[in-house]
Design goal:
The complex is a heterodimer.
Chain A lengths: L9 H27 L20 E8 L8 H25 L12 H8 L3 H4 L11 E4 L2 E7 L5 E14 L3 E14 L2 E14 L4 E8 L6
Parallel strand pairs in A: 1-3
Antiparallel strand pairs in A: 2-4, 3-4, 4-5, 5-6, 6-7
Chain B lengths: L10 H31 L5 H4 L4 E5 L5 E2 L3 E2 L3 E8 L10 E10 L4 E7 L4 E2 L2 E2 L2 H19 L5 E5 L1 H10 L3 E5 L3 E3 L4 E3 L2 E5 L1 H9 L8 H22 L3 H14 E4 L3 H12 L6 E5 L14 H11 L6
Parallel strand pairs in B: 1-14, 4-9, 6-15
Antiparallel strand pairs in B: 1-9, 2-3, 4-5, 5-6, 7-8, 10-13, 11-12
Helix pairs in contact in B: 4-5, 5-6
Chain lengths: 218, 311
């Protein structure tokens, strides 16, 4: 006499296993998304100012016109190094030594270099303020915003940070800088910028804003 | 005699089987919703969540540009609102606005073109139905006498999705509207517009004796309010990148990469809203509207540098 059939447990097991795999995959996706927005400990490769002003990486957020894009560690390092070089050469060098470090120009692409070193130089740099040594300086963390293209390839990275400075004679300076980088032949260079600066002495306060990135120099 | 007899189950077994089936359905539904949600959060296009609709942005002609910097000389963009919608079809260019941009002067001019303006023996809006945005651009460019470099073609759904995507915007409604045809019921004054409300506002023509002429002017006001909102949203690079992502979620872009869109966006950001002139071209009355007044002079003034000096 045949034994009674027992219901198979295979479909239920398969459902549980399959469901678990999908749930884990989703969890991994969400964690990866959260991790991408976290701070990391990238530091500039080179710091060249006496005040010890060192930019640090802060929040990172990446948008994309296609599949998700990410900012690799190498790109973060490259953008942070260029931002530090700009701060050292265009801001700290004039305040500490009374002159620009010509290397700061190299962080800009040809299209915006003309503005940064010409019409906007008085805002983009502290060359007109001159030496106010000794200088005290602090900076906010550098926020990175990335933009991926239709294939998810990173094409633009913006670094945004603030710097507060004070020096001899009661000079106080607040700077807010946004440098947008594009990859030019393997190197990340500034292709657009917005810089706001407020300078105060005991006598007066002035402020200025400069921006470029359309290739048009008035 | 039955070859296969179904095994009789106890009520407890039936309950267990029902619970198992219901549980499986719940798990599958939950996983589907969570997967779509997670994919959307991660930036993938999910048609329902992304509201993918029809907006087409085309680069039609090259502009004089630095390869790395975008347009450097005056250029012209045609904005087309077409009437294509379910159950109607058509896709005629019912809202036509030609924007001239002067990057160097940080100024722009928008010419509002009534849809019934005559061109080549027909109403000018027919061009869009016959040949899409390129044909519409050729018609408008021919009428005004400028080369059109970019065309943005949007239907009703695309328009409402884009407005809702930026969270709507505020605009000053110039007069009371009470139009059952378009559903435009507005009191004058500043108010926040959703995509649907903006569409209703832009379609109202029955409230005005001059019908489509006033509607066209109102569309111009709406576009400028939209530009003002986008400029607010684009005050940081992160904000600009979000707008670009939004555009790609809703639009199909031909011959335009992300960096091109970024450059064009920066140019528009550099133009204060009060530096955008908005005027409707002078036309006659009738079914197919001819040009009137100093239309040739206006077009020449517009065509040379996209900025009006004598009008």
């Amino acid at each position: 006499m045949p034994s009674p059939r027992t219901p198979s447990k295979k479909p239920r097991t398969a459902l549980i296993v399959g469901g678990s795999i999908v749930a884990i995959a989703i969890l991994a996706l969400v964690i990866a998304k959260l991790v991408m927005s976290d701070d990391d400990d990238t530091k500039p490769a080179k710091v060249e100012n006496s005040a010890g002003l060192t930019l640090e990486l802060g929040d990172v957020e990446v948008q994309s016109a296609g599949p998700p894009a990410t900012i690799s560690t190498a790109v973060k390092q490259s953008v942070l190094d260029a931002s530090q070089a700009y701060v050292d050469g265009a801001v700290m060098s004039p305040l500490e030594d009374g002159k620009l470090d010509a290397d700061y120009e190299k962080v800009f692409d040809a299209a915006v270099r003309k503005s940064a070193t010409g019409r906007d130089q008085a805002t983009v740099t502290e060359v007109r303020t001159g030496s106010v040594k000794p200088v005290k300086a602090t900076a906010t963390k550098v926020r990175l915003d990335g933009m991926g293209d239709q294939t998810g390839k990173l094409v633009l990275v913006a670094a945004t940070f603030g710097v507060d400075l004070s020096g001899k004679g009661g000079v106080k300076i607040k700077r807010l800088t946004e440098l947008t980088f594009a990859n030019e032949q393997g190197k990340w260079v500034v292709t657009a910028y917005r810089v706001g600066v407020q300078r105060s002495t005991s006598a007066r306060t002035t402020s200025a804003v400069a921006h470029a990135g359309t290739g048009v120099v008035s | 005699m039955k070859l296969f007899r179904r095994k009789q189950r106890t009520p407890k077994q039936r309950l267990k089987q029902a619970l198992l089936a219901s549980g499986a359905l719940v798990v599958v539904f939950t996983l589907t919703v969570v997967s779509l949600g997670a994919a959307w959060l991660a930036g993938y296009k999910v048609p329902l969540a992304s509201g993918a609709t029809y907006i087409k942005v085309q680069k039609l002609a090259s502009t004089e540009a630095d390869a790395a910097a975008g347009p450097t000389t005056p250029f012209f963009i045609l904005l087309v609102g077409n009437d294509d919608r379910p159950g109607v079809g058509g896709a005629r260019g019912d809202a036509l606005h030609l924007v001239g941009v002067n990057p160097k002067l940080h100024k722009a001019t928008m010419l509002d073109i009534p849809r019934d303006t005559c061109w080549a023996g027909d109403k000018i809006n027919a061009a869009n139905a016959n040949g899409g945005a390129p044909a519409q651009a050729a018609a408008v460019g021919g009428l005004i006498g400028v080369p059109v470099s970019y065309a943005v073609d949007v239907n009703f759904d695309g328009f409402t999705s884009l407005v809702d995507g930026v969270g709507g915007f505020s605009m000053n409604i110039p007069f009371e509207m009470h139009d059952p045809y378009s559903g435009a019921y507005f009191q004058p004054g500043v108010q926040h517009m959703t995509g649907d409300e903006a569409l209703r506002f832009s379609r109202d023509r029955h409230d005005f004796p001059q019908s489509d002429i006033v509607r066209t002017e109102n569309q111009g006001l709406l576009i400028i309010a939209g530009i003002a909102q986008m400029q607010k949203d684009a005050q940081s690079a992160g904000g600009q990148f979000k707008l670009i992502k939004l555009l790609y979620q809703h639009a199909e872009l031909d011959n335009l990469g992300v960096t091109d869109v970024f450059r064009l966006g920066r140019i528009m950001y550099d133009i204060p809203v009060n530096a955008i002139r908005n005027l409707t071209i002078p036309v006659t009355n009738g079914n197919c509207l001819g040009l009137s007044g100093d239309a040739p002079g206006l077009f020449a003034d517009f065509a040379d540098d996209a900025v009006l000096q004598s009008h």
